Amino acid sequence: MSGGIINIMRRPLEGQSKNVLKAAINTLEQRSVRGNVASSLTTPDPATGGNVMTTINHDSLSSMEDQIRAFADSEEIQDSWDQTAAMCKSVTTAILEYEAPVEGASEAFQPKYMVSIFLKRGMRQELIDAMLEIRSGMSGIKPSILKPLGMVNRIRISAVYETLEDLSTALNNQSPEAQTQRAKMIDLTDSYFRTISRIHDLYG
After folding, report:
1. Cα separation of 4 and 62, whole Å?
2. Is there a contact between 86 and 137 (Cβ–Cβ < 8 Å)?
3. Beta 144-148 vs 154-161: how paired, if at all?
4. ∠ at Cα 21 (15, 23), nearest 5°?
5. Consecutive H or E run containing 11
6. Rounded to two decimals, what is the model's pTM?
7. Given phi > 0 = left and psi -120 to 50 = alpha, else beta, which region is 85?
8. SS3 of residue 169 by DSSP
9. How far apart are the C-alpha atoms of 36 and 28, rounded to whole Å?
10. Which of 26, 54, 153, 195 could be a cystine partner for 8, CB 3.0 to 4.6 Å?
11. Is residue 195 within 8 Å of residue 20, measured between CB atoms?
């Protein structure tokens, strides 16, 4: 059975970024779930401002369902959620199912940066198949490919890096193979945008 992630995106009120980040990290650690907390270094729309993202990893959709049920059954967890939400302009959640998780990372690997690419395509499975083919030819740490359950025409690709130098090298790769892959990706998409985030906390 495929796994996936619950992605929580919080947009802090002015002056609350530090408190929202701290609350997100504390919640992840106290709940003893696998995941990470990151904050945006770049945003596709400057008008929206930065955000704090919590990603909770699940090996199966049934595990994810257990967490959703636990939230619904616990006033304590709901109160904690509301307290953090009160410091935010908005809070959005998404459930994404894995087509392929991150692959090739050793236990010693400690990522500090994440690049997420959001692609839109009317024929999503065609795009997923193409991205899986491109991914199969990659060396090193391979990115994850996810499909949001709430959006029928989007996919997300996320790659992680230890340093900004590593990130820059990957994004600025001008090899013939990389250029061919980018061209294929662009040809298959109706829209494309990329975000860069700083990972503050990894748990589990």
Report:
1. 10
2. no
3. antiparallel
4. 105
5. strand 4-12
6. 0.87
7. alpha
8. helix
9. 8
10. 54
11. no
Furthest CA-CA distance within the chain: 55
User: CA nearest 94: which of 155, 165, 175, 23?
Assistant: 155
Q: How far apart are CA 43 and CA 3, in angstroms?
A: 27
Distance separating alpha carbons of residues 57 and 64, to the nearest angstrom: 8
Residue 1 is predicted with a pLDDT of 45
Non-local CB neighbours of 186 within 8 Å, separated by 6+ positions: 192
Alpha helices, H only, the chain: 17-31, 61-73, 75-85, 124-136, 164-171, 176-187
Q: What is the mean pLDDT of each run of 10 residues along the chain (204 residues)?
A: 88 94 92 90 73 94 93 94 96 94 87 91 85 88 92 90 94 87 82 90 77
141 is written with which tokens? 């740490």
Instruction: Quote the pLDDT of residue 46.
Output: 66
Reduce the DSSP state of residue 76 to 3 states and report it: helix
Asked if 201 and 130 touch (Cβ cutoff 8 Å), the reply is: no
Nearest to 89 by CA among 7, 6, 195, 16: 16
